[in-house]
Amino acid sequence: KYGPGLTTLFWFPAHDPELPSQVLRDLAPRPVVAGAEAGRLLIEFLTRDVTTILPFLVSLQSVALYEGSRLLGTASSTESARNERTGQVTITAEIEARTTSQVKLFVLKEALPIPPWLRQHPDTPIALKKMNRAKITLAVRLDPEPTHQHDSVFHVYFPTEEPSGTGFAVHADFHVKPDRTRLMPGAYNDWLLAKIANICATIFLDKLLARYRAGKVYEALAPSESHLAQGKFLALLGEALKRRRRGFVATAAGLVSR
């Protein structure tokens, strides 16, 4: 009915007896019933939230919203080179066949093996103990060169309320509070943040410098002034840059080490 390219049906039960009541209170879901208000909420969700998480989803490229057989809107992701670790991603939202927003990002994707000792660590939650790899995605806004986003946050698909402290978004399989607003303290997140900082200071920086002007790259990756007091990730990133051996400071003679 809605096209041969659609492959997935999402079913959201009105009541889930397996969901703990405390988790339900923390998540505070809102029921959506048919009608004009529901349509408005779903369009807002499509244009604001779906476009936010699409860069971090491997198996989902587009989402369409229908009222009966009438197409209300779409959110789609177009990659410059699908299945590549790095590249440009364009996120487009259309409502009633009219483009309402378009965001271009440069992304880097990695999958990090989780060491056995960490999976067995008493701080590591049960769900993470069953994982072999932690997925991460780093995303910097393009306009058309890298630009600093002062409100960038850590993502676990949907954004948390915790600033990354830098000008780019950091998505990873973090351990978060049940309401997904904050990263939890613990050995697993400490390990993951350190790994991400090292990737930012090496592979991510190298890929950006190879494609864009150095000054724009430095501006995009710089700490956000409003979050300078937020120490852990910025401190880890600073230490990783100090260990870097390959040149990255732009001079008239080319890139040199600090």
Can you offer a commentary on this structure?
The protein starts with 20 loop residues before the first helix and ends with a strand. The chain is globular. The protein is 31% helix and 29% strand. Helix 5 (187-211) packs across helix 7. The chain has helices at 21-27, 36-53, 116-119, 126-129, 187-211, 214-221, 231-243, and strands spanning 62-67, 70-79, 86-95, 98-113, 133-142, 146-147, 153-156, 158-163, 169-172, 249-251, 254-256.
- Given as residue ranges, the uncertain stretches (5+ residues, pLDDT < 50) are 251-256
Q: Give the class from helix and strand content and strand pairing.
A: alpha+beta
Helix content: 25-40%
Please report the distance between the alpha carbons of the first and last residues: 60 Å
Number of strands: 11
Number of helices: 7
Radius of gyration, taken over Cα atoms and rounded to an integer in Å: 20 Å
Main sheet attributes: strand count, strand direction, barrel closure: 9 strands, mixed
Strand content: 25-35%
Q: Tell me which oligomeric state these chains represent.
A: single chain
Tell the overall outline: globular
Order of helices and strands: HHEEEEHHEEEEEHHHEE
Rounded average pLDDT: 82
